């Protein structure tokens, strides 16, 4: 049976064909969402470019909440449902997942070379695992072993309240908040969050500058020291460590924490030198426990497609 798998993010959509749990590498394509009217337009364009293959199954991952087979892309407003996927693909078996759920289903299909170690820790592959997505948006998923298969939870954790522990945190949260005065985790840990942190750092220094997240991260890789960029990445690392540590205590992921998404991959080279371990493990009398949680970054940009294929091929 030929399956169609897709990962619809806030900025890009990735699509491929799958046979069982295996994604056909030569079928993978990426589409820039701004160039298309919606998900159906992208899926139709993909199928046309591949000669209109007969699709029997389809699994689509969406960067937004999914309920009763329907979901809305949080950072673009597109709406997609399983009936619409079936109509455009011809598939008789269709599943719509939250994108972090797809990343959770992908973990068992990732090659070791597709992971970068961020923090060392024990490996307990049958224990609970936590996925943290850092990209255009921010979200989490928890992966539990359940009989022969997996139970992978959905969430919208990036829209929880941003933690603040001192006056600088409060000042940054107020700066990041929208018109409603609410500051979420996503407001600072997403790509646009890096831009907000940098704007706050430079504004507070009396030299306000506007830079894109890509330019900030590129400058962080440069040998030339830019104090504002360094401070931006340091603040980001501190927030990520604190929030990831809180999530670890919520879920006890002894099977590991996995960072996914474009921002996660771009930040990974900076995390060790900017003190992620100290911020992640700063949990008072529970600090020793925090050494039991390994953190790795998933470098495979198409991992969610493997998760979708794995979901379609899962045991009944």
Automatic annotation (TrEMBL):
<dbReference type="GO" id="GO:0006096">
    <property type="term" value="P:glycolytic process"/>
</dbReference>
<keyword id="KW-0808">Transferase</keyword>
<dbReference type="GO" id="GO:0005829">
    <property type="term" value="C:cytosol"/>
</dbReference>
<dbReference type="InterPro" id="IPR043129">
    <property type="entry name" value="ATPase_NBD"/>
</dbReference>
<dbReference type="InterPro" id="IPR050201">
    <property type="entry name" value="Bacterial_glucokinase"/>
</dbReference>
<dbReference type="GO" id="GO:0005524">
    <property type="term" value="F:ATP binding"/>
</dbReference>
<comment type="similarity">
    <text>Belongs to the bacterial glucokinase family.</text>
</comment>
<protein>
    <submittedName>
        <fullName>Glucokinase</fullName>
    </submittedName>
</protein>
<dbReference type="GO" id="GO:0005536">
    <property type="term" value="F:D-glucose binding"/>
</dbReference>
<dbReference type="Pfam" id="PF02685">
    <property type="entry name" value="Glucokinase"/>
</dbReference>
<dbReference type="InterPro" id="IPR003836">
    <property type="entry name" value="Glucokinase"/>
</dbReference>
<dbReference type="GO" id="GO:0004340">
    <property type="term" value="F:glucokinase activity"/>
</dbReference>
<keyword id="KW-0418">Kinase</keyword>
């Amino acid at each position: 049976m030929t399956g169609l798998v897709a990962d619809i993010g806030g900025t890009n959509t990735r699509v491929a064909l799958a046979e069982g749990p295996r994604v056909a590498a030569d079928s993978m394509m990426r589409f820039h969402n701004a160039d298309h009217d919606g998900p159906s337009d992208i899926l139709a364009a993909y199928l046309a470019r591949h000669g209109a293959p007969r699709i029997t199954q389809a699994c689509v991952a969406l960067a937004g909440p999914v309920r009763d087979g329907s979901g809305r892309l949080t950072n673009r407003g597109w709406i997609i449902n399983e009936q619409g996927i079936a109509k455009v693909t011809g598939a008789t078996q269709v599943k719509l997942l939250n994108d972090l759920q797809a990343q959770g289903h992908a973990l068992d299909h990732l090659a070791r070379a597709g992971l970068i170690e961020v923090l060392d820790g024990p490996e307990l592959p049958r224990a609970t695992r936590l996925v943290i997505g850092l990209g255009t948006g921010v979200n989490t998923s928890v992966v539990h072993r359940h009989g022969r298969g997996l139970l992978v939870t959905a969430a919208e954790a990036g829209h929880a309240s941003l933690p603040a522990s001192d006056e600088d945190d409060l000042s940054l949260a107020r700066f990041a908040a929208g018109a409603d005065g609410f500051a979420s985790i996503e407001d600072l840990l997403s790509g646009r969050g890096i831009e907000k942190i940098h704007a706050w750092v430079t504004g507070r220094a009396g030299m306000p500058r506007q830079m894109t997240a890509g330019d900030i991260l590129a400058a962080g890789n440069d040998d030339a020291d830019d104090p504002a960029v360094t401070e931006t990445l340091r603040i980001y690392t501190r927030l990520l460590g604190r929030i990831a540590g809180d999530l670890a205590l919520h879920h006890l992921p002894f099977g590991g924490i996995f960072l996914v998404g474009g921002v996660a991959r771009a930040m990974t080279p900076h995390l060790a030198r900017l003190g992620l371990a100290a911020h992640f493990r700063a949990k008072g009398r529970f600090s020793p426990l925090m050494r039991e949680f390994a953190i790795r970054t998933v470098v495979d940009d198409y991992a969610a497609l493997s998760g979708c294929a794995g979901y379609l091929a899962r045991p009944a």
